[in-house]
Amino acid sequence: MMASKGRILQLQNYSVNDGEGIRTIVFFAGCPLRCQWCANPEGYTPQNHVLFIASRCIQCGRCTEVCPQGIGWNLNESEARAKCTGCGLCVDACLEQARKNAVQTMTVAEVVHKLESQLLFFRSSGGGVTYSGGECTTQPEFLAELVDEVYDMGLDQAMETSGYFELETLQPVLDKIDLLFIDIKVMDSEKHCQFTGIPNAVILDNIARLGATRKGIIIRVPTIMGVNGDDDNIRATARFVKEHLQDPKMELLPYHSYGADKYTQLGLVYDETLFRTPTKEEMVHLNAIIESEGVQVVSYA
Ligand code: SF4
Ligand code: SF4
Fold first, then answer.
1. What's the CATH number for 50-101?
2. Of 15, 90, 168, 267, which is the most buried if we count CB atoms within 10 A?
3. Pocket test for ligand 2, best of 57, 75, 90, 266 (most atoms within 8 A of CB)
């Protein structure tokens, strides 16, 4: 086994939403996109960030005593955030669990060891492992080594990705992935850039090229009223999927604001007034548009 180290947000066991059966989701840190609705802002970069849960803080000052930067108890002051290196010393010092590391460093062997404890669940349910993030493809060497190990264990492997990667580099990894969930956030590239920070040409090109050579692709749309939940965008997405996938399938994931607290804990601002969760009726309507374009609607919820 090789010695590559990964930057991991968390391993989440017993998940049933991101592939077949019972799964463990490996959340990688680091992402090249900046989706304004992101539910995992602690995963923007591979570097550690410390979450500060102000409601638990009793202002005892233990964190200040160990901080090499001389930062006080209120880590969310903008000056404190600017100075913080994410060293994590204050996390160990705090007895109230008011501070939490977002990112941990793990070897492939450590991840595999944790996966081995779940083998019974994987085998009894037809489940396996799903790589997610952040964006798992931002750590290609670690991902490749982990995928090789899990492949040799004979487990089902799925990946959730933004589709924003260099396909030539990643192809050997993708060849070992049974099911690929790739997002199309918005079809209009200018709008895509406005809401995610990058245009969508690379993503659409990767989907078209992958669609020409393999099955086992599901296009996901994080569905947000005010951004991409309009009939025209969903229809355009479905037409693209129908044109480029051999077995065209889509899943609409209704927007939620569960990540809002994390923005506060990181000293970031989250303007959720821009976004609205689609109603059940709107979801039925949008799914009907997809089916009318000859694309199968799937649900892993
Ligand atoms: S050690 Fe924890 S409880 Fe004490 S001041 Fe720092 S964050 Fe607050
Ligand atoms: S993570 Fe390190 S630099 Fe940041 S507040 Fe804690 S001890 Fe200070």
1. 3.30.70.20
2. 90
3. 90
